[in-house]
Amino acid sequence: MRLHRLDITAFGPFGTAQRVDFDALSAAGLFLLHGPTGAGKTSVLDAVCYALYGSVPGARQSGQGIGLRSDHAAPGTRTEVRLDLTVAGRRLEITRQPPWQRAKKRGAGTTVDKAQTWLREYDPVTGGWKDLSRSHQEIGEEITQLLGMSREQFCQVVLLPQGDFARFLRADAEARGKLLGRLFDTQRFAEAEKRLAERRRSTEAQVRDGDSALLADAHRMQQAAGDAMELPDTAPGEPGLAEAVLGAAAVARGTAREQLAVARCRLTAAESARAAAERELAGAREHDRLQRRFAEARARAARLAERADDHREAEARMARARKAETVAPALELRDAAEAEHRRASGAEARARALLPDGHAESGAAGLAAAARRAAEELGRLESARRAEQRLDSLVAERADLDRDERADDDLLAEAESWLAGWDDTRETLRSAVESAQEAASRADQLAERRGHAQRRLRAARQRDQFAGDTDDAQRAALAATDRAAVARAHWLDLKEQRLDGIAAELAARLTAGAPCAVCGATEHPAPARKDAGHVDRAAEERALTAYQRAEEDRAEAERRLGTVREALAAATAEAGDTPTGRLAEETAEIERAYAHARAAASAVHAAQERLRRAEAEREQRITAQREAAVRGAARVGRRERLERERAVLEEDVARVRGEAASVAARAAQCERRAALLTDAADTARAAEDAARRRKDADARLADAAFRAGFDTPRAAAAALLDDAAHRELQGRLDAWQAEQAAVRAMLAEEDTAAAAHLPAADVGAAEAAAEAAVRRLREAASARDAAARRCAELDRLSARATAAARRLAPLREEYDRVARLAGLAAGTSADNERRMRLEAYVLAARLEQVAAAATVRLRRMSAGRYTLVHSDDRAGRGRSGLGLHVVDAWTGRERDTATLSGGETFFASLALALGLADVVTDETGGVRLDTLFIDEGFGSLDDQTLDEVLDVLDSLRERDRSVGIVSHVADLRRRVHAQLEVVKSRTGSGLRQREV
Q: Which of 36-40, 966-970, 978-982 has the weakest average pLDDT?
């Protein structure tokens, strides 16, 4: 990797654009980057790191990069870093702009522009640059892949910070491990250790959980066995727990099976005893039942003997009723005939009462003949009745014709009157339409004038308001500008006072025996002292904050002033110079004229609609006149036809109706007379038929009573029973016979008669004995069931425990294997004699390579005296693997690097840094690093050692490398001719380049 050009704008202490030509500086191979303290030497290196990785080293990176902007930059200048370099044979240009907080273009406040990145590549064929990407992520991945190292590795390999390597020489193994881990990316080995430890904890927890579940099953088996099982004393996670639990479970299962066999034998004996007791109880109950049955039969026989006379009387009554049942049909027939004769006679009497005189004594045949004659006369009156109905309709039609004629006359008169004034009406309506249309045209013209006048009036009022606001805003802007100038002057004064006394501030942090951060010396004979008016960093920052706040207030006041002025100019352009009062009067006059015209124009639609309706009405009235004339001509012919038809019908009706009021009345009289005669004839015939049927029924009833053995029909009717009485009597007879048969059967039973001669049965004693046998059986069954459940539960829990132990076996084997590997990788296993962790083991190998590469340069810098060696000895009770010693050739002894002096520590750390750069370069793929920077530490060297160190650095040119030394040691300015000087001032730092 070779740097060609660096452009910096508004970055760090550089307020303006600066350029560094690394090609010119690298021509000599060795160049010096110097300047006063705080000028910004490190910021040049930060710019290189930011261009490559988008961030700066360490704590100088804050937020999203907004803090990288220079405080000295102009408000409109954006921060930018552009780096031109060659890496992996490709000429690239990287441009980065961090986020920028700027004032909004519109409105108040600020806004943040996002960070931007460009990557371009030089094309030697076309001689121009071509764009590759503008994506932060793609550019970061491309640069990291080309360089082959992370930002941390780059800062340690290319930007060699001597202070870090001096601490590295004096650090313990843990601190060295952290630095080497960042450089060589051994995180994967630490992750492997972590994964093994997590795997060990995970498998251990699984084994412990499995043992806990197994022990819980053992407790359940102990409860099921009735505390007859002894639990093992082994805790979860300890070996042998599964075997102990399974052995105790086997013993508990054997004991439970023995208890089950005993319970089954007891249950069998209890069942036999219960069966015998139940047989004894059944015999006693049967004996008692037979004795009670015999006694009941004797009592029922005595009751039957007492009711024997009643039974014989009921049998005789039933015999008479059965004979009377043969006469019952004849009785029912005679009663029906009698009832029918009474109904027919009554109907005949009512019908004859309604007949007119002359027909009351006529027979059925005479009545029927008279009814036929009345029906014939009614038929002759039907045609006359229709003629009479037609006469009524003719009268109604004539009345309708007269009414229509009067209506048409009224309509014609009204139409003639209305049409007579049509010309005047039409002219009036057309004049109203034209007037409304003219008013609408005037309203449109006035609306435009009204809108323009209103806009001018509003603009004039705003003009007057903005004129006053402009004066206020101008006064506020002037006051804010004065305050900002005073605050800036105060801040710059304090900053200058602090820079004048910065030596005292640095001296306050010096420690006896520790190297100076400026010159690197370990002795401090005359440190500077703070005077009474010393300005510290806090006071300067407070002044800077006050200045920034005042500057923000000034910018905001100027923005408000510009906004008000723009508004005033816009309002003035709209309103002109006319006074607001005059514009208000003009606007009011136009408004009144517009309202009047609009009110008149609003009647245009109504006037047009009235004209349209009047024209439509005229057409309707003309049409109605024509239709009325046609209807009048038709009515004359129709009236004549109606008169002729009416005269003929009146003559026919008068002839037919006779003395009646009308033909309909005459027809109604004939129709009523025919109906009464027909009804009387029908009822007379029905009465004669009913009398004949009653006589026949009386003859048949007398014959049936005689045949049944009764003297008279009345006697047969008295012997007859209704259904309810018959069922009641038959039920009594059937109950007697059934009771008599049942008593005889019970008394004839041999076992019942035999039991009656035996002593009384003791059922209570037999029941007590049976209950005792049942109770003993339930107890035996409960014991058997409990023993069976105990066996089943123990079998289930034993099977589950066996399966759990079988599943746990491979997990325990895995835990043993993982625990051994985790202990070995973590350095806690007895097999790891040096207690060296896996990551430390890998880093020890890298440290050994670094020590070998550093020794090549250290021997030359120390004139062959010192050699760096790696040591894996343990320090006290700690772990081993990352020890670093120096071998002194003058004494032949090996000692710790912490015993080196200040100057020796510098060139040893420099050799270590160069050696580390070579090893890291090889580790990351062998990317050639043609540009290196070494930061500080040269002030601790004497002249001879400084010459030797410079010779070593100058020898790097043999491999076409350029080395930049970052220092403010004055002697180096004489020795190194190519220089890049950082110059600081109140307006920000600048760069001044001097070439060979």
A: 966-970
How would you classify residue 364: left for phi > 0, otherwise alpha for psi between -120 and 50, otherwise beta?
A: alpha
Please say whether the beta carbons of 845 and 189 come within 8 A: no
Given a contact cutoff of 8 angstroms between Cβ atoms, the answer to whether 773 and 274 are in contact is yes
Render pLDDT for 403-433 as a digit per residue (tens, 0 to 9).
877 787 787 788 788 778 878 887 887 787 7
Q: Are 872 and 960 in contact (CB under 8 A)?
A: no
Question: What are the φ and ψ backbone dihedral angles of 14, each rounded to 5 degrees?
Answer: -90, 105
Mean pLDDT over 495-503 rounds to: 72
Question: CA-CA distance, 296 to 644, in Å (whole number)?
Answer: 114
Structure tokens at 860: 């030359």
Phi, psi dihedral angles at 962 (to 5 degrees): -120, 140
End-to-end Cα, the chain, rounded Å: 23
Contact 960, 14 (CB under 8 A): no
H helix runs in 924-983, sequence order: 943-955, 970-975
- Strands 80-87 vs 90-97: parallel, antiparallel or unpaired: antiparallel
SS3 489: helix
Residue closest to 9 by CA, chosen among 65, 59, 82: 82
Q: Indicate the pTM of the whole model.
A: 0.40
Band (pLDDT 50/70/90 cuts) for residue 879 is: low
507/310: higher pLDDT? 310
Question: CA 174 to CA 881: how far, in whole Å?
Answer: 10
Q: Letter for the amino acid at 561?
A: L
Q: Which tokens belong to 43?
A: 């910021």
Instruction: Report yes or no: 795 and 260 within 8 Å, Cβ to Cβ.
Output: no
Residue 864 region by backbone torsions, left for phi larger than 0, else alpha for psi between -120 and 50, else beta: left
Burial classification of residue 897, based on how many CB atoms lie within 10 Å of its CB (0-12 exposed, 13-18 middle, 19 or more buried): buried
Residue whose tokens read 């009405």: 617
